[in-house]
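Standup notes, structure subgroup. Blocker cleared on the zinc ion input:
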Amino acid sequence: MSRSTFSVGVDVDSLWHYYRIHGLDEAQASDHAWEVGVPRFMSLFDALGLPATFYCVAEDIERSPSCPMIIKEMSDRGFEIGNHSWHHPYALTTLTHEVATREITEGKRLLEEASQSIVSGFRAPGYHTHRLLHQPLIESGHRYESSAFPCAPYYIAKAMVMGGMRLLGRRSQSILGPPTLLTAPHQPYLAGPESPYRALSHQGELSTPTLTHFPIAVWCGLPLIGTLLALLGPRGARYLGRGVARGMRRGGRHLTIEFHAADLLSLIDDELDPLLRVQPDLRRPVAMKKEAFTAFLSSLAAVADPIRLDRHPLLSAQSAL
Ligand SMILES: [Zn+2]
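Run returned:
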């Protein structure tokens, strides 16, 4: 059996998105995600020798003064630029077909222009997607999507937080997504136009236009995302990493690990707006989070090959069909 592989990706959600999720006034948001979070992640990945993907929101090219220069730098340093939509609408999956299509196509076009690189991957905002995105993704030249997140504990926690906010009279712009997303496979799969959460298997089904999906990793029910690693701290992350590595050692598996640019920011170290304390992982110091991420990723790198998602072998198989 072939050696296991893993990919790391960072969703570059600027801080104003956190104000939106928590129903706060986004006019006060600073540009720390681009100015500080992204450069810290680039250094971390370089130190670990990991070829990562940064999923960027194309409107930031105009909205963030640092973004255009950093996007170009990411691409020059060998990182993959992924499309995280044009404006990061949390309600992307409920928009009209026309507006959703523009979010996808304009996002890709603007990011390619800024990075001078080919954008092959799409990650929808908010950990869920929709079958109506299938066609615009294929027609605009995307080769994969990495939005599915079949993690029941995360889904339930998100439902409870959103319900609690409603009780307090605050409105989150986040959307929960249908429970069917929990049925998505945990390993990469090809999906057709009917459902982004169902793997195609029969030859007949595979003759329809397919898109490769890389679900965000879930291990024994646990979401393998930066938020969890930050909350676990270095000891917990090391322990988790060793457990996951034991399962990967047998080979033949792929994990897509997800971070956010804000995962390497801290309320105290970076003197962020105290209103952001609603985001618990921002209360942890940067050094501690960096140590936790390093411990976890090093455990994986000891048993599996890191791979840029746009170079995953499944994509060549898809082109050959
Ligand atoms: Zn996002």
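Discussed briefly. DSSP finds eleven helices and eleven strands in the chain.
Next: hand off to the docking folks.
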